[in-house]
Write a sequence for this structure.
């Protein structure tokens, strides 16, 4: 069961349509960028290479990753391995796909204890919303999900998660504002164990990765989780906003170092931002991208599809 | 990976020393580095192109002045160019001739509108205004609840309104209430929305029609990447923005989006958000932002923070000592003590430039604990050793280590750090202090 959740996307009917729609809406404002560039050009020249490079930069892929990819492709061009613009485009996509595919294994399913998912990230990226969507997704596979209101800091964060709990018919464990998030997590995990929940999804307060104390608080949450349920948290999901630029890599580094991130959810892909920084993240940290967020409704969480994603970078 | 631009340019100009001209030839490589630095800072690539053209035009043919190295000279050109684009002066908040003035806070989801609403209201109140808050975010779960709690925390009135009202109704009712009860500013927290969401964008247009706000501030996340131009441009096209608040600047994002947004909207950044507390709202300083985008650190903010905690006279003494190279370990210890008083260390360190001895000293690299240790080492020195560190030989090092429970390596490391710090201060010397320190007082707050 967990394999279908964390493993390769399972194509359910209706799902592909939604994916297409989501990608389409991103596209509708822009024309087929790459197609435009490639069409009617058979020769590969410096201008074309430069334009393609710009497409990557414009998608927030970042100059280091872009240079690496373009460097490899340029070599192929120099060796005469790429005949025309079409092949050039194919070669770039392949390079990008390679970066993303280093990283697509699922999470091992634990035996007879709840799966613990800890959701982390900087302020406002969409953690709580993603939890709501995830609870819906998992709940619709007939699993019992318990939500943990681990953001005890931000005003009305608990109320926000409670509403998501109602929407998805999931129970929620909470304490008073200002409580120690590890204590709330402890409560939730003990209760989930006793009452045989399949999943616990824990919210955390948004925090900038540069705040030493707040990062230590996350470490503590991980330790608590490990103590109550050995081997947990099974998934530490970093929620990254697709509008984020190169700082996203810094976020991923720090959250991975301090909280042991195991996967990324890329939100707000229903806008015009491409979220290309996940390529830099996958390249350096070998982190798998698990989900994409494409709206504010409970259905708007989709499994990450590398090919679709790369296609949309170029559209 | 990414190194500071200054360091890169130094490499580029290694051969060009003290004389000669900036030419097409020696600028090519430099411009490439500048381009990369700006892209790394998330400045939109089209904006980068424009900037590079301007910089090239300004640089070419310039004589390399004696008082500057080519690197300094080029960095100055780049910095000036950024400052010019960002706006050379701090922009002020405007008020309507007839109260209440209405301020809209608009922007994408998660950019920090609600927190900024609280901060802005507090800032207004401190400036002698009587603000009223209202949330018209009827979409996000518990959004209105969030603003109620924020308002309660800072003790500022908030308009409740009916739970089933539409955004425009709520805003109008709040305006009515402000008028009746004599509030002079109404701060409207709107729902986050995508610039491509036709329905929600026209909702904002409609609210603008109805309330005629004096300020429509675009709340933008400092971590935003290349897409900043698209969202800002569209919000501006639909609403005619009057300014920007750049949030989450307490992180380590370079904040190149500030340039992108300014470029497409022409509107000034009016405030920056620098923390989760309600007092963490500051006026925007283009020169500091330019330094930050270039990775040159935010020395001015640091100095200013220091000024808040250090008394003036002490600061002047310190500056004098630094300039005249009489900065002893005694002073170093005092600095550590003050640093610890200045507040969360990570915040302070985030403002240091990522060059010279500070390189590698990133916020996460230093912990409060370490400072305590360093202080302990200095404490176990004699006062003569503190003022004349050059006398600290091997046996003294061993004694100091024993006395402070540290290892000899740690003592060595501290002495090395101190030495580097002194060297850097010397090289920044009078020049840097004059250059950065031309500033005397902050521009007066307008309110
Ligand atoms: N358009 C769009 N909006 C999203 C998506 N995911 C989240 N949001 C919105 O982004 C805003 C912030 O989401 P939250 O879930 O509150 O973010 P958070 O990370 O929990 O925020 P903090 O707890 O305050 O740090 C809300 O308005 C969400 O509705 C998405 O995929 N697309
Ligand atoms: Mg949240």
């Amino acid at each position: 069961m967990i394999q279908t959740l964390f493993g390769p996307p399972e194509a359910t009917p209706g799902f592909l349509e939604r994916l297409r729609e989501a990608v389409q809406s991103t596209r509708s404002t822009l024309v087929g960028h790459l197609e435009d560039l490639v069409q009617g050009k058979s020769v590969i020249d410096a201008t074309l290479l430069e334009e393609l490079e710009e497409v990557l930069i414009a998608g927030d892929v970042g100059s280091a990753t872009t240079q690496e990819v373009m460097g490899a492709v340029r070599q192929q061009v120099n060796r005469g391995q790429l005949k025309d613009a079409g092949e050039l485009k194919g070669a770039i996509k392949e390079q990008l796909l390679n970066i993303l595919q280093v990283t697509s294994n699922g999470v091992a399913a634990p035996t007879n204890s709840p799966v613990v998912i800890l959701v982390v990230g900087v302020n406002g990226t969409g953690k709580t919303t993603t939890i709501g969507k995830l609870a819906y997704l998992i709940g619709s596979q007939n699993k019992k999900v318990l939500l943990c209101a681990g953001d005890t800091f931000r005003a009305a964060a608990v109320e926000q998660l409670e509403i998501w709990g109602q929407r998805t018919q999931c129970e929620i464990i909470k304490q008073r504002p200002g409580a120690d998030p590890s204590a709330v997590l402890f409560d939730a995990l003990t209760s989930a164990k006793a009452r045989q929940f399949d999943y616990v999804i824990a919210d955390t307060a948004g925090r900038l990765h540069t705040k030493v104390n707040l990062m230590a608080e996350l470490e503590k949450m991980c330790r608590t989780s490990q103590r109550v349920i050995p081997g947990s948290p099974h998934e530490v999901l970093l929620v990254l906003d697709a509008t984020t630029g190169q700082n996203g890599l810094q976020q991923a580094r720090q959250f991975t170092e301090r909280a042991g991130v195991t996967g990324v959810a890329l939100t707000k892909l229903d806008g015009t931002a491409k979220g290309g920084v996940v390529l830099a993240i996958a390249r350096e940290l070998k982190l798998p991208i698990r989900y994409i967020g494409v709206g504010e409704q409970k259905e708007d969480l989709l499994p990450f599809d590398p090919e679709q994603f790369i296609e949309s970078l170029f559209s | 990976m990414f190194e500071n631009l200054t360091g890169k340019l130094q490499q580029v100009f290694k051969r060009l020393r003290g004389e000669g001209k900036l030419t097409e030839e020696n600028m090519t490589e430099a411009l490439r580095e500048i381009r990369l630095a700006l892209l790394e800072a998330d400045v939109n690539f089209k904006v980068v192109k424009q900037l590079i053209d301007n910089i090239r035009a300004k640089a070419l043919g310039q004589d390399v002045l004696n008082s500057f190295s080519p690197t300094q000279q080029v960095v100055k050109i780049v910095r000036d160019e950024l400052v010019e684009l960002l706006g050379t002066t701090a922009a002020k908040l405007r008020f309507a001739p007839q109260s209440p003035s209405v301020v809209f806070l608009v922007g994408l989801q998660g950019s920090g509108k609600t927190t900024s609403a609280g901060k802005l209201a507090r800032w207004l109140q401190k400036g002698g205004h009587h603000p009223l808050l209202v949330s018209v975010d009827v979409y996000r779960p518990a959004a209105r609840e969030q603003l109620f709690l924020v308002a309660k925390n800072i003790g500022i009135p908030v308009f409740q309104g009916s739970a089933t009202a539409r955004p425009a109704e709520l805003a109008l009712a709040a305006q009515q209430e402000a008028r009746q009860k004599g509030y002079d500013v109404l701060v409207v927290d709107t729902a986050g929305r995508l610039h491509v969401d036709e329905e929600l964008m026209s909702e904002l247009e409609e609210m603008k029609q109805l309330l005629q706000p004096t300020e429509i501030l675009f709340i933008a996340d400092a971590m935003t990447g290349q897409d900043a131009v698209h969202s800002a441009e569209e919000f501006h096209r639909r609403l005619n923005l009057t300014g920007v608040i750049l949030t989450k600047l307490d992180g380590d994002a370079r904040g190149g989006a500030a340039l992108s947004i300014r470029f497409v909207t022409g509107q000034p950044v009016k405030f920056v958000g620098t923390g989760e507390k309600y007092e963490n709202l500051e006026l925007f300083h283009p020169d500091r932002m330019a330094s930050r985008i270039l990775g040159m650190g935010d020395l001015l903010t640091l100095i200013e923070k220091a000024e808040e905690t250090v008394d003036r006279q002490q600061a002047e003494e310190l500056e004098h000592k630094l300039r005249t190279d009489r900065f002893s370990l005694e002073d170093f210890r005092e600095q550590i003590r003050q640093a610890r008083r200045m507040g969360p260390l990570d915040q302070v360190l985030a403002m240091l430039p990522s060059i010279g001895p500070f390189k590698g000293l990133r916020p996460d690299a230093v912990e409060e604990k370490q400072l305590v240790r360093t202080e302990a080492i200095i404490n176990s020195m004699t006062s003569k050793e503190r003022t004349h560190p050059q006398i600290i030989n091997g046996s003294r090092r061993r004694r100091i280590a024993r006395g402070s429970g540290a290892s000899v390596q740690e003592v060595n490391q501290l002495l090395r750090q101190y030495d580097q710090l002194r060297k850097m201060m010397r090289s920044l010397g009078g020049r840097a202090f004059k250059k950065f320190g031309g500033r005397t007082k902050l521009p007066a707050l307008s309110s």
User: Anything to note?
Assistant: Chain B touches chain A through 57 residues (CB under 8 Å).
